[in-house]
């Protein structure tokens, strides 16, 4: 049994499935991390072995992401939430890239549920780096791809109830590799409560609309 399958056999309560990782997932590690503002699972990274390791840790959630890119992802910087306050993480990567995008999430109702991309060397004989990134949220919004879709693809979908609360990886001149801290929504955390209340409000509004139309028809 692979390290990932073994680890995720224990972590199923987080809404994660080892079968979702495809051919790139079988050699990745998963472990429970106690730190930051919540218990999380650390997975990955995907990409090359160049650069140095970094780990932002786990937070309440992600508020926004800045990605600088050109022929690859040159750098990434994440804005997190910690107890209702924004926390800006460090920049990971180099100073290259001629395009910058800032992705603002509708936190706390919106969170990241799927990250995919490609990795390969930028120059012949070089170490693989992250060539492209694409992100999706629980509100069915898609951002990217940013960079060039060349090389080995990777895809990281998360089952319902799971979401990304932190980033890890490797970086030097570029973003060499990327991994994640994952957590799970549950009835005891405030984010779950806020999302549930908003969804319930939307459902109540939809339920009221037919009744209003019927009443108007009766008056007519």
From TrEMBL:
<protein>
    <recommendedName>
        <fullName>Jacalin-type lectin domain-containing protein</fullName>
    </recommendedName>
</protein>
<feature type="domain" description="Jacalin-type lectin">
    <location>
        <begin position="40"/>
        <end position="184"/>
    </location>
</feature>
<dbReference type="InterPro" id="IPR036404">
    <property type="entry name" value="Jacalin-like_lectin_dom_sf"/>
</dbReference>
<dbReference type="InterPro" id="IPR033734">
    <property type="entry name" value="Jacalin-like_lectin_dom_plant"/>
</dbReference>
<dbReference type="Pfam" id="PF01419">
    <property type="entry name" value="Jacalin"/>
</dbReference>
<comment type="similarity">
    <text>Belongs to the jacalin lectin family.</text>
</comment>
<dbReference type="InterPro" id="IPR001229">
    <property type="entry name" value="Jacalin-like_lectin_dom"/>
</dbReference>
<keyword id="KW-0430">Lectin</keyword>
<dbReference type="GO" id="GO:0030246">
    <property type="term" value="F:carbohydrate binding"/>
</dbReference>
């Amino acid at each position: 049994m692979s390290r990932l399958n073994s680890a995720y056999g224990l972590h199923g309560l987080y809404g994660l499935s080892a079968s979702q990782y495809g051919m790139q997932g079988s050699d990745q590690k998963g472990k429970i991390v106690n730190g930051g503002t919540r218990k999380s699972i650390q997975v990955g990274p995907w990409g090359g072995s160049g650069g140095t390791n970094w780990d932002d840790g786990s937070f309440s959630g992600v508020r926004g992401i800045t990605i600088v890119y050109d022929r690859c992802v040159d750098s990434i910087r994440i804005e997190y939430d910690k107890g209702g306050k924004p926390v800006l993480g460090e920049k990971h990567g180099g100073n290259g890239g001629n395009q910058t995008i800032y992705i603002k999430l509708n936190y706390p109702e919106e969170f990241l549920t799927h990250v995919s991309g490609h990795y390969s060397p930028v120059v012949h004989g070089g170490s693989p780096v992250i060539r492209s990134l694409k992100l999706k949220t629980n509100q069915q919004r898609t951002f990217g791809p940013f960079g060039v879709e060349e090389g080995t693809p990777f895809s990281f979908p998360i089952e319902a109830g799971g979401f990304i609360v932190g980033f890890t990886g490797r970086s030097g001149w570029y973003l060499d590799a990327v991994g994640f801290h994952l957590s799970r929504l549950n009835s005891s955390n405030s984010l779950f409560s806020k999302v549930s209340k908003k969804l319930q409000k939307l459902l109540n509004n939809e339920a009221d609309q037919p009744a209003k139309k019927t009443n108007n028809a009766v008056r007519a």
